[in-house]
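Bug #77: duplicate submission created two jobs. Keeping one. Sequence:
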Amino acid sequence: MSSNKTKKLINKVHECERESNEGLVAVNPGMSLVDGYTVVVRTDAPQYLSENKVIVISGGGSGHEPGHAGFVGKGMLTASACGSVFASPPPLCIMAAINAVCQQKPGCDIIMVVTNYTGDRLNFGIACERARVKGHNVEMIVVGEDCALDSVDHSAGRRGLAGTVFIHKIAGAMAEMGKSFSEMVTYLNTVKSKMGTIGLCLSPCSVPGSAPTFTLEHDEMELGLGVHGEAGIKRIKVQTAKEAVKTMMDHMTNKQTSTHIDIEPGNRVALLVNNLGGTSVLELNLVAREAISYLESKGVSIDRAYCGSFLTSLEMAGISITVLHVDDTVVEYLDLPTASPSWRPSYLAPGQKNRKTPGLVKVPAEDKILLDETAEKLDAETADLVYKAVRSACEKLLEMEEELNDLDKQSGDNDTGSTLGAGAKAILGKLGPESAPSLPVDCPHTLALTLGQITETVMGGSSGALYSLFFTGAAQQLKTANKESLSAALSCGLQAIMKYGGAKPGYRTMVDPLHAAVESMADVRNSSLSVAANLKIAAEAAAKAAADTKEMDAQAGRASYVNKSLLNKPDPGAVAVASWLSAVAAAL
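Kept job's structure:
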């Protein structure tokens, strides 16, 4: 593979379409593959034929998965013919789809849903004529709902995009309900004119074995492109999701263009937000949020909203937005259950008939510290020392931010100092002046609970959780304030970290200095040494243990995934613990 070709998980370029469909039917027992053709058909096609219902067939080029084969199933398509990537299926393939359903029965009613591309119209058109020669009643519903073009005077007309899936769903539902051939043809030709779609991409796609179909600069987006990577109407600078959706919707509804869709206050619509292939679910849901917000700000009622991968363009990073005008009848067709594995129904609560703007569920706040009024308070002089200890520890962590980040480079994160620094800044911000502290420095129990809440909220991730566990575990032993309770608090905090974090002494983590500190305090617990002296001994033991992590093999945390030869410095989390313990000891 040359350097300008993109990587794909395929076997052979010219067999990927067939093998993809083999995988599709392998995981969906309700589908079958026609021998010798890239045609997917309902497994229960013979039974469906016996019910004299209208047959709905679609198809197109591969590379748009799940469209169109993914929509084969009860309540949607009867069969789908697949061409090569981005190429219309040949007439023989389409005829194979017809024959797979009709077998030798003459006079079948067949509706073909075709996207408005020249190749699709020609090849499906040939198949239509051949099917008529065989005695079938056939009509082609050509879908072209693209709203990007300014004019269709000198073009092939509006392209068929993701809105085609709405027609699949409505046609399949009507057929399942036993609607007549003529009724379906008339209705579908009316419905297809009541929708519009516009696309936007951030990066191109590439046909298997080839280079990307076009290029975009890192700060560019393409507005109004087609599903085969063909150019859009213009390139714009990268925008936020909110701005991008507004740009798309404003163009789609611009009355100055001949391809716009009219959307007025009071209209009822169905919204489909489609992934063009390479857009993350996070982004897709965010776009759906913005599209719903845009329409509702215009006074439009969104009766149904759908979001997911419906008609893609291989790995293209981008989205399309489709708006379909609906009434109760259209909604009924959209809601009719289908066995198609790729249709994503719009979830409604039991008994709910229309989509509603979601309300916010109110829950009791978890930010209230559960105070224990029996917890022992400190005298003013001791509380002042605690204030200084807290401030000193936080200032030390801020002072070491770059050093800790540098140590963390060895495990690939490079953020230990920044994470702990964020927690330290938040604590200092809430600490208040020494003359009137805002944190409860006179009550060790409440202070520990408060510090646990601050660290878990501000620091987040593993570090925030570990420190929250430490402070919350320690708090239970601080309801009494003496030398023994401080040692017990450190021990309980350590046990909480070990229980939920999984690390043990010797694993090259923050547990090592904490464990050393606890052990050293246990050795002098019954001595006459002061709290300050005890803490000094504990801090010295912690510093040695932190330095010793340089020689340990990492057995927990992200560092455990790093090659041992790269871990040639002390663990940053361990160094941080030793540093703030030393700062506390010095302050006391």
